[in-house]
Amino acid sequence: MKVRVSYEALPGPGDYEFVRSDVDRQLPLRNLHWVRTSGANRSIRTIQSLPVDFRPLHSFGSNQGALSLLERPYLHLLFVVCDDNETYRATIRTQIREWLDSVIARQNQEWLIVHVTSGRSAGAKFYQRKGAVVDKIKADFNTGKKDRCIQVFQAASAEDPTAWAEFTNKVKEGIIATFDSNVSLYEEDVRKADSQRQLEGWQYLPFFLQKEALADSFESMNLFDDALVQYDELEASFFQAMKEHNMSSFGKVGGLAPGDDALPLLSTTNKPYRKLIQTNDISIFDFRIYLFARQAAMLFHLGKITEVAKRGAFFISTFARRLREDQNSLGQNFVESWTYSACLSIVDDCQRWVDGDLVDKATAASFLAVKAELLELARKQLDKIGIGAGHLPLVHPFSMSLNETVAEVSSDPTRDAKNRPPVSRRDLIDAVASREVFDKLYIDLTNRSIQAYQGAGRKRCSLKLHASLAALEDHRDRQASAQKLYSHLPAHYVDLRWVKIESSLLTQCTRLQGTLDMSRERLLSTLALIRAGVEFGSKSWSLDAVEDPSVHRSRGEDMTTLAKKLMDDVYSLSSTLSKDFAAIAFPTFSMRLASEHGSTAADEDGVTVPLIIKSLLPCTLKIDEVRLKFATAEGEQIWFTSGGCTLAVGETRVTLFCPTAVTGRLALELSQIRFSRIIFQYSHRPISPRNLAPDPRNAPLTAQQPHVHFPRDHQALDIYTELPRTIHLDQGRHAIICIAAGRNHIVKLSFKVTTPTADLSFAFDSAQIIEGAAKVSPSAPEGSLVMEGIHAATIVKIQLPVVGPIRDASIDYFTTKRPTTRRIIRRAVSYPVALPLAVNVQDFFREDCLLSKFSVTTDGLRGLKVRSAHLEAVAGIVVKPCRSPKSSTLTILPLQTANFLFKIVREPAAVVDPLRLTLTYCSVEDQLQARIHEAITSVIASSDFIDDVRWFLELVSAEICARTNLHEFSTGGRFDHLQFRQEAWSPVVELRFGTRAEQALEAVRMIYEALREGGAQEPETAWRTLTIPVELPSLNILNLVHIAASFNRVEVGQAIPITLSIRPTFSWSNGGVPDPLVLSYDITAKMEDWLISGRKKGEFEAKDGEETAIRLTLVPLRAGALFLPSVAIRPISPSRHPLSCETQHLNAATNIEVLPTASQGLFVLDLDGIVV
Q1: Fold of 3-179
Q2: Are 1142 and 1127 a contacting pair, CB within 8 Å?
Q3: Within a 10 A sphere around the Cβ of 646, how many other Cβ atoms?
Q4: Which of 821, 811, 902, 797 is nearest to 855 (CA)?
Q5: Less packed terminus of the chain by CB within 10 Å, N or C?
Q6: Is a pLDDT exceeding 80 seen at residue 379?
Q7: End-to-end distance of the chain based on CA atoms, in angstroms?
Q8: Of 710, 701, 690, nearest in space to 632 by CA
Q9: Taking residues 410-418, what's their average pLDDT?
Q10: Using CA atoms, how far apart are residues 850 and 878, in angstroms rounded to an integer?
Q11: Which residues pair with 643 in a beta bridge?
Q12: Which H or E run contains 936?
């Protein structure tokens, strides 16, 4: 309802047409501000926009007193179109007075006189404006301080929107004043009626009409919030009056009119509701619907679509319960039909607002969730109708929609049939009559609800509706479709941790999959059902949710039998699989290490580790195998296994065995239980982004990964490398691979070596067994060596050609203890390719011999001992060493160098083969190890610990080496510093030997004594031989230089005649000297020692054995013993190949004694040579 404004025009009604367009341009009114003149709340209320209904005054009738305040004009306007004073005085003034008298007689209504001028008269007589018509109107009719007369210019608003601003403001003021007065009157009436609530005979409906009139006033002014407050208060007053008064004015509940079950809920025009209220003839049914429709209308005006839907859902639910209290007076399925219709009506009305872009996106998104709830509420009514009509069974999930007993739902339909109108919705009538129509209606409505829930992001609600569709398919014997729907649901409830719902759905899946002969799918569902028996945070297993006797459980069957049957099903179903299936982090089982220390096997190679398996199942379970995967620090994987065993309820201890004799600290990575073809697998790695957390129902992982330490089995097969005792640099290198059989009688052994790069490979076909007895198989695969028949307690040494560094060696072997068990040993072996020493040679040519100096240095890290250095002579060569063969061993520290000098004489024209330098050496570390090994072997050989010699060699040797200073040992070679500490060795020995600890401790003490008393003898096993081929060097030209001086003693400045003799020889040349050969010489001397006079530089033709003499003069420049100048000789003749040339000064050690002069003289020369 719009605010009404009356208008009248003078001199005649037709004059309003002159200003109609100007008035229309001001509408709707904007930005009205209202402040209550009465009451406590004086806050400013702003009305953004207000449409106004302009009507002629006569259209309101002569008796406006019969109209309500809202139907009366809020403002009376009189437009006076007159610019002539005479006309105004003659007729217009009287007509204005008559109009004003009729308006003032009407209470609570404002009035305004608007003088309309064209502006022409006023512009011609501007100086006479005080005598204009508008001034006369104001003087005649303005009363008090309020200005009720204004002037506007005709058609001015088209050019200037502000020209009629005063008119707009006056209209706003008049409407607001009337509205405020009306509100005060309505509120006063409401207060009076409310104060009489406790009086006898008080009626709610008159009170409702008075308060609704106030709400209508607010609505007419677009104050929808205030109007909604009035209707909310009316609703609260209704419920209060229902409690306090008899409410006899309503008389009956209602709902008996034809079509009441299908009327649009938000429409106020379904019936003449207000007339029924005024005549006290409205039922509770109609009144509640009308009141809610008015509340919804206000909410729609406010754009609160979601609020409409929320209130609608609450209203339908609560009022439906009220209607069921009078179920017997209503038609069969009336409440369900009305609820169904009301929900769809609200959804359709709200959806029109959303589709019409009348709300923002946020409101549209929030509406989706409430829309889904309304659609689900409507679907529940179909559940009730379907059960009553026999279309649906009275079982879960359909029975969840029932909120009354079955007897009430399926009550006698013939009782009071004449007074109970039938359901009028055609779709429901058809659904009751036909199962196919019902199913279509049911499925369509459910899908609409699912779509709305998914759009709102309410996953759980949509899953529940999916389950109801699956149940419908199952009830209709459409098992394939039902199974497909059911199978997608349980996985969602795992994340939501709703275990009971998950188990119930899985029960249906297994039943349907068994019927459809879907073995693999049934296996997965059964595993999931078993997993669902472990609730989150629980330490027990239970499946209380499984109540279907046709699936797994009959009446009286306990959890033990149920668990046993489920696991038997898993075993039988998984046996049909073509490959193993891994069940990761299955919460029914958990495994932990029983100890952090493993142990070695007693009579065979291998280690064992104890494991505790905890089963939450209430039954014993036979399993096929248990496996553990460990990892070394290098990343190698080690598997432990056990045979079949029976898991008891609770914890079971199992010992696992690994045929590989691993040692050191291993990290547990995986544990597995084999059950037929099911592998229950658990990760023991710490939680990380790459290793996600397992099922939370399983035992929580700790931040630390479990580790186990395995002792070294010194009787197991072992592999290590040795350097050959003799190395020839001109021959291929070899490595010695030692395989110690230990306790094992080896049936077959396969040996492989890996290198850092794929480019390197080893020639296994050239391998030789240099020690020990074994049969080499000729049919070995490429890249490996296969041997057979290795006896226990033997060592087989294999000489293998080396082409590069060795990274590790691996052995696969089979023993007589377990001939079918493949054992693997892999060792990262260290085989140094580089030698621990370096040899450099420097040659000095002489006319009759060659002097060769060999310099031996260490690798800079270890000390070295050299027992001998021998240069082997060949035919035509005589070699004489400078060092006596009886000389003592030479020790070379890391930063030292040892030199060995040899004199080589060659016979003339002899053809010389390469020489060979043989060094006998050992490193200080090798000597230390050899001394310790010799002592341990000698002591243990005469004891009862011969089988444990490897333990003594490893531990005792490591301890002694750690307490020995290599530098001191290299100089003295004794073990005087060793002290046997019984308190340190006792726990180590007791851990290894147990009851034989005292005898073992005595053996260790004897080893210490043997080393201390053994002196500094060097074992022969420590020495190694290095043979280096040495080519005899050649020299094209050897120049023999001799300087002969006339005097051996002179004074400073005294000239000395000298003769320089140069005799070249080609005796060390292998040919290739050109003829003729021209050599150049250059005499050099220190400038502070000699002044040379003569040919310092020159050339001469060289002949083998011929001497060339050159005379020069030397002048000494200082006193002292001065060495003679040196001579540099080089070939200058062109040659294809460069010629090697050296010079030997025959008297290089000769010096001249120069004495200081007895007298001195001073000579001064200028640069131009003129004597000063």
Answers
A1: Rossmann fold (3.40.50)
A2: no
A3: 9
A4: 902
A5: C
A6: yes
A7: 140
A8: 710
A9: 45
A10: 10
A11: none
A12: helix 924-941
Domain 1037-1155 CATH (choose: 3.30.530.20, 3.40.50.300, 2.40.110.10, 2.60.40.10): 2.60.40.10
Query: DSSP readout, 80-143?
Result: EE---HHHIIIIIHHHHHHHHHHHHTSTT-EEEEEEEE-SHHHHHTGGGGGGSHHHHHHHHH--
For residue 294, give every residue at least 6 positions away whose Cβ sits within 8 Å of its Cβ, in sequence order, or none. Answer: 212, 215, 231, 268
Q: How confident is the model at residue 420 (pLDDT cuts 50, 70, 90)?
A: low
Encoded tokens for 431: 């659904």
C-alpha dihedral sign at 489, 494, 495, 498: positive
Q: CA-CA distance, 376 to 396, in Å (whole number)?
A: 16
* Cα-only R_g, the chain: 60
Between CA 316 and CA 807 the distance in angstroms is 81
Res 561 pLDDT > 80: yes
3-state secondary structure of 657: strand
CATH code, residues 718-831: 2.60.40
Phi, psi of 1162 (to 5 degrees): -115, 125
Rounded CA gap, 595 and 673, in Å? 19
DSSP 8-state assignment for residue 67: S
What DSSP designation does 834 have? S
**Predicted confidence band at 67 (pLDDT cuts at 50, 70, 90)?**
low
Asked if pLDDT for residue 66 goes beyond 70, the answer is no
Cα separation, 8 vs 58, whole angstroms: 9
Percentage, residues of the chain above pLDDT 70: 89
Q: Is the bond preceding residue 1138 a cis peptide, omega within 30 degrees?
A: no
Q: How far apart are CA 946 and CA 743, in angstroms?
A: 12
pLDDT digits (tens, 9 = 90+) for 650-708: 999 999 999 988 989 999 999 999 999 999 999 998 866 555 444 444 444 456 889 99
d(CA 711, CA 160): 104
Per-residue model confidence (pLDDT) at position 549:
43
- Beta bridge partners of residue 843, listed in sequence order: 852
> Cα separation of 114 and 79, whole Å?
5
Topology of domain 581-686+704-710 in CATH is Immunoglobulin-like (2.60.40)
Name the residue ranges covered by the structural domains of the chain: 3-179, 330-345+356-409+416-476, 581-686+704-710, 718-831, 839-1031, 1037-1155
As to burial, measured by CB atoms within 10 angstroms (0-12 exposed, 13-18 middle, 19+ buried), residue 610 is: middle
Summarised one tens digit per residue, pLDDT across range 141-154 is 887 778 889 888 88
Backbone angles phi, psi at 195, to 5 degrees: -70, -20
Give the 3-state secondary structure percentages of the chain, helix then strand then coil, rounded to 5.
35, 25, 35
CA atoms within 13 A on the CB side of 1061: 11
Closest CA to 967 of 905, 924, 1011, 916: 924
Single out the residue of 75, 87, 74 nearest to residue 11, CA to CA.
87
Cα–Cα dist 641/657, whole Å = 5
> What's the full length of the chain, in residues?
1172
Cis bond before residue 881 (omega within 30° of 0): no
The lowest-confidence range among 139-153, 514-528, 757-771 is 757-771
Amino acid code (one letter) for 1103: K
Dig out the tokens for 1032 from the structure.
């005899």
What's the pLDDT band for 324 if we cut at 50, 70, 90?
Answer: confident
Q: Give whole-number Cα distances, 93 to 118, 138, 574, in Å.
A: 19, 11, 109
Beta strand 915-923 pairing with 864-872: antiparallel
The SS3 assignment for 649 reads: coil
| Residues 6+ away with beta carbon under 8 Å from 260 | 254, 285, 334, 338, 421, 424
Residue type, 194: D
User: How far is 533 from 502, CA to CA, in rounded Å?
Assistant: 10
Other CB atoms within 10 A of residue 832 CB? 12
Domains 718-831 and 1037-1155 share a fold: yes
Taking residues 898-925, report their average pLDDT: 85
CA torsion sign for 78, 84, 86, 91 is: negative
